[in-house]
Amino acid sequence: MKNLIIAILVVILLVAGWYFFIRPSTTDVINQVPAGVTPTDQPADVTDDTPTPVEPDGGIGDGAGPVPVVTIGQSVGGRDIKAYRFGNGSVDILVVGGIHGAYAPNTSELATRLIAHAEENASFVPEGVTLHVIPNLNPDGLATGASPAGRFNANNVDLNRNFDCEWQAEGVWRSQPVSGGDAPFSEPEAAALRDYVAEITPAAAVVYYAADGGVYASSCRNGVSAETLDLTNTYADAADYTANEEFDFYAITGDAVNWMASEGVPAISVLLTNYSATEWEQNRAGLAAVMDVFAE
What we know:
Layout (H helix, E strand, L loop, with lengths): L1 H21 L3 H5 L38 E6 L5 E7 L4 E6 L8 H16 L8 E6 L4 H6 L25 E4 L2 E4 L8 H13 L3 E7 L3 E4 L8 H14 L2 E3 L11 H7 L4 E6 L7 H15 L2
Parallel strand pairs: 3-4, 3-7, 7-10, 8-9
Antiparallel strand pairs: 1-2, 2-4, 5-6, 8-10
């Protein structure tokens, strides 16, 4: 019996020693690195243009606190469309990305990076200005991860043909016919932007597209206003893009910025140079120059 008791005690001591001194911790298991990979290695496609992800509660990355955010509508597929607000000035500036979803994903990436930058740098938005950023107007298109199919929303409508300026049920993208929807603002994404513009009445609007490397003024059957032309030149000069009074590559119907012009909002299309790079420094400078014009 004495030997049995001693044997049991030995087993207990061995198990306890393994648990407290030899067993790997949970942290060690989680942090294990595959063979041949060092902790500092990153995937080859991670660059300085990689956006800081938007957290569901409105916080961005590792900033000091949550960003004021409102849900302005939902996509056809039920995904939220959000607007982030910075500053508390009386002059509202609107920025929109992602209207063409996965076809031009860098426009959403750029808008997301603007959100992170504004949160981390309080001085980015000057006194007298409130900056509104809608990073992704077409979340269903972006979620497809496909191009060019991801250009369209879940109803297969090109959102940039669904606004009420020279709207047509069948629009054109390059030489290809595309759906403009059943009526102006038939798509919930376009209607969400319409309602938000009516709510904030922006003094200026910047909408990101791809790809050209230029800034284009807006108009709707009544010519380019002096305010819109100034906005075009201000952004283009600061961002080192070409400034253009008219988009004349092919006929455009139901365009978002042209509709804004019809509502008296100076609006510009900023076409990034390609479909991948955000051209961050250029566009940060361009938007900063625009906000400075309206600052107190």
